[in-house]
Protein 1
Amino acid sequence: MKIDKSIFAALAWVSLAVLTVPDSAVAQDDGDNVFAQYREMFGDDNPAELIELQGEDLWSQVRGPKKASLEKCDLGLGPGKLDGAYAQLPRYFADTKHVMDLETRLVYCMVTLQGFSEKDLVAKPFSGRGEQPSDLEALSAFIAGRSRGAPIKVSQSHAQERAAYERGKEFFYYRAGPHDFSCATCHSQSGKRIRLQALPNLTEAAEARKAYSTWPGYRISEGTVRTMEWRMGDCVRQQRLPELQFGSDIAIGLITYLGVMANGEPMNAPGLKR
Amino acid sequence: MASPMRIRAKTTDGITEVKALMSHPMETGMRKDAEGKPIPAHYITEVTATHNDKLVLHAYWGPAVSQNPFLNFQFKGGAAGDTVTIKWVDNLGESQTEQATLS
Amino acid sequence: MHRTVKWGLLGAALCCTSMLAAAAGKSDPLGNVAASFKAHGQAGMDRLERDPMQQACSQPASSEPSAEVAKSISRSAQERVKPPSDGQYLGDWKAGEKIAQTGKGMQYSDDPAEPNGGNCYACHQMAGSEIAYGTLGPSLSQYGKLRGTSPAILEYTWTRLWNSHVYNVCSHMPRFGDAGILTEQQLKDVMAYLFDLDSPVNQ
Amino acid sequence: MNYPRRSFLKLGGSALAALATTAMWPLRALAAAVRPEAAFVAKDLEGTYKGLGGTPTASAEIDLSTPDIAENGAVVPINVTSKLPGTEEIYILVEKNPNPLAAAFTIPEGTEPFVSLRVKVAQTCNLIAVVKAGGKLYSASKETKVTLGGCGG
């Protein structure tokens, strides 16, 4: 979808290179293998660390009309409890009587604790090209990082949590728009790829675990950390549907569905993405 | 913290390995923003690394170094308590300095 | 360029089936889908409405539509296929190559003034020289060389591009002609890319 | 829970920056005195080599490691190790970028003749490491393929 604006249009150097190497030059079958060497060269050195630092700073900074930090924000494990909190989101929150994911909960905290306007926060939750990471991106990177190693445990105990899962699962197969695409079009078969990119089969636990546990992720093509809400919205954009609204029932439903599919896997985010 | 930098430095068998991540857009000046307006060039032009007071690496960069640059190099020596300092300067005259202490 | 197809009896039948299911107390887990979206650029809210095929195929492959529903979807798809107005199936393979390589078009982030791409390489192997091809669909390498250009194979391929559901009820392939993704001329150019013996697909 | 990434020191602030600026000033004299501007603005290899002072000789004593295929040309890792005695400078070039020269490193005495960096590669082409050792220029090159990714490009 937006394939690389950032390197091609974006670098605006030269036109797209059409490859002219013989087939035999690369493995044909598996996108993962094709890029394994490329991935390995990054080691553990993920620029997401820089954005985690920005998020850590934002978390404790006194900001907003109410001149408060986010340190009393309750992400589900109690006010200010960060370790492992992301691995258990989305979840039902009694104070709002809604299932919330990390990002909607952060907005809630920024509104209630710091006095920011919800309308402003939701109007542009993600950074644009050439901009600094948004507050939500930086905070999400930092908070997800504080769940590294914590097993994913997305609850299904509350009726609303189960309803969110069902909604997400149902929408996963929802074919619509001029191209008839659903999430399942690309993400319900194993061993497939789009162009050279391996496509995780999100209906299989093993693949869903690997995918979910590495979001949010530093997107090389975007030059910043992108969040789970962004990921859902960008898939939907590529499905040619109208804009998926931030924090909407379908967005949270999809994240809940994928989270439950990934339960048990240790979080390893922010990951490093194409 | 507009542009954080992360430095990791570790001494093994008398060689200190330094890894640095620098927050910088490294704009080439050839990209356009969402509205189609050109994004001005903004990139690190010079990087200097010192071990205590000794220069251990110097670099001039162009805009082809990737966004949020990663740099890895090694020098001989290094002991607990020593410092490794990295400083960059960009084409707009901005600069950033970060220091790590060897442990 | 949205679909302007009249669904007629098939639509009516499916619509009543779903109404009956709702009446029987089977709740819809989706709730109000539209409430989660907002119109953006060329992607209007009408895109969330599903036609009978989309509705019938909105489920895991393990629970595809009944034989009867499948048959009516395929029949109705077949009825709407428009052969080239001048009877010529093959256009310019060089133009077809660009269409096969381009994935833009119809996203709210795309410029509606620009022609749409076909993005064939996202899913299919085509020219042997292009290594960045997807595997969601079958390889089309050597397509024309292997099959020749008989009227039957030209018509079959045109129909596949126009509306793949004629042959495969819940095909994942977009309905490039039927949904107005590609113009008649663009379809001819893609046909030429597949069939022309000078095209890289057949090298 | 383990946080391997938290193990290093984070410092900052203008005081430190000011201190470092002063402290480092005399050091600049040690580094390559001036930016090789002609090489940085050159639009092809020939021009870049001219800016660097000559065409390098191919050498097997330079280890150049880059991926065969890059998932994204915006970030391509490149590692260069020189086994040439007296390595003073290491240059990283991307043959078909608008300006091939990406970076010019000075390697002082006591620093290993090794650098690892990530660069933008606009299209499939050779990545080239040029090493200045004993006053002479040597090079090694390797092709990296840049592919189109994903679904909607």
Note: The beta strands of chain C are 37-38.
Protein 2
Amino acid sequence: MNAFFATVRRDLLLAMRRKSEVLTAVFFFVIVTSLFPLGIGPEPVLLKKIAPGILWVAALLATLLGLPRLFAADHVDGTLEQMALSPSPLGLLVAGKILAHWLLCGLPLVLLAPVLGLQFDLDASALGILTLALLLGTPLLSLIGAIGAALTLGVRGGGVLLALLVLPLYIPALIFGAGAVEAHIAGLDVGGHLSLLAAMLVLAAFFAPWATTAALRIALE
Amino acid sequence: MRQSLIQWFKFASPQSFYPLAGRMIPWFWAAAAVFGIAGLWISFFVAPTDAQQGEGYRIIFVHVPASWMSMFIYVVMAFWAGRGLALNTRVSAMMAQSLAPTGALMAALSLWTGALWGKPMWGAWWVWDARLTSELILFFLYLGFMALQAAIDDPRRADKAGAILALVGVVNIPIIYFSVKWWNTLHQGSTINLNKAPSMAQTMLWGMLLMALAFWMYSIAVALMRVRAIILERERHTEWVKHAVE
Amino acid sequence: MQWNSVGEFFAMGGYALYVWGSFGACAILLIAEPFLAKRRLKQIRQSLIRERLADELESQQRTQ
Amino acid sequence: MLNVSGLACSRGERRLFVDVGFSLAAGEWLHVQGDNGSGKTSMMRLLVGLSPADAGAIFWRGERAPSVEFRRDLIYLGHHAAVKEDLTPLENLRLAAALDGVALDERGALAALIRLGLRGREELPVRVLSAGQKRRVLLARLLTRPADLWVLDEAFNALDVAAVKLLGDLIAEHLAAGGMAILTSHQPLPVPGGKALVL
């Protein structure tokens, strides 16, 4: 487990030395969500209705933005090779990298979402549900995205390819995540949505590092 | 048992599979033609006019088989890809690669015929129905698989990466399908439910079944044709390929 | 048999565009795909034959 | 200790080598030689388990490699710098050790860096160092991680005369202590003895 935390610490330290890369995803999220009202018009009823979808799609694209860099730097400078040969299990190190990615690209979105939700006239309880859904959903995005990032590592046109591979797999998270907030606004119970999101998160936490590891070993061959 | 296992691995080598596939193709074409003609006969001349949908419902005879095949081929493709990954057999990976374009074609046909069916029945080319949406996502999964394989130069790495993607996809397809279905029922007010298909007459069921068999045999035949080309492309520097073409 | 004339058959009870659009697209694509596969096989075969010819020419020139 | 037999490798359609075999006992080292493109690096990557062999087997202490025990006993240094440009040499060493699950205190890391002549560079980001100095940061791992088998691919490249001698000394010490090493290089190596393998 020490190796796991060491990986998280290492990636956070590296990100702190290059703050611009972390801030890109956050700025993207803020700007995209703020553009929608400008494109659609300031009508509060309509904005309130589309807010969950917009916030979720923006979060999804913001996560996607950081994914190509998840393994690329380590691949280019050879540290990924060293990880693959380390006595610590590669799956553990990969899980550490995924957690670090979420802490850098996912958690800031979760924390910002309530503030951005105010732009869309969401009330306090809806903001709470939105935050909770993103808290469950964004790690899922990082986990699934890591598989795509590993598969497209060092491949021509990797960025676009990554989006093509990963976005269809993101659909369940989008549906249940945005659905939870919509259901809440409509006065329905959101327990089902959230527990399904949690179930998918557990499933992905179990399988995604494993699949990512397999894909990374292939990329290193 | 032991003997048949050895046989199986014998056919799993590209060298012995290439001529075997060549011998099998005409049989599958013949089966596809027979089933297809019988299916078309039933679709146009035996199946009665539907009380609600008139003659428009006849699209079902191509729409449903194409949808079935698009889903079935993905599972078969994932099976071959996974087998190739686990046992490191080259022919398995080549089969997976050769199935993908046919699967994508079936998904595209399913979407196209679905749109042509939807327009007269519900007045819209596209409705965000659970099945149509899932089919669209399946189409994207096929495109992703093909794009990934095309983007990787080393064929062995392409095989393995594609296999992982196909397996991840196969785990996700049920999740995607149920999530889309859930999403659809939540938004029931704005969409139309495609589930109210006309009550199935016996002859219609037969027509659909025969057409599905025809599509199935067709898919096998065309996949075998493509896998032969793939075998030659990948094995072009081996001795046996140099003697295989006259 | 529910068709009284050939015209009626092609009219498909007013659904001609949709029914023939579906069946037509299937027919075109399902016929085109085997031809594409066939062409791919032919191309690789031709390339293999060309390579063998090049091998022969090379060995001929070497013996001369 | 290390037994390799029947190793074969191909890159794409090209056969690089077939039926390569050798064995190493404690204190022995192997010099892998060959022209450019003869497959030295492929051979090294295959030995450490980064890429699969077409055929053949590698046994480490009687067990089939790559196993966890094999990885624990192995240090592989390849062509890549394998150091993080944004971190200091000290951070690089300590984090690499932590990832490998090896205990390394500041004293040990500093001692290794000083031995490799990086005194005064401990706290600078690696990106301001020269190519040879970056290489030395990587080589410091040989001192901070106990491992019986060193697999060094072109480790003498980009090193100045002093560093070449230093690395030669390190390898000699390692062998004297019962370690093993596999090295590739075009030039003659400043390490006495050694088996040769020509690809």
Note: Chain B has one domain: 57-238.
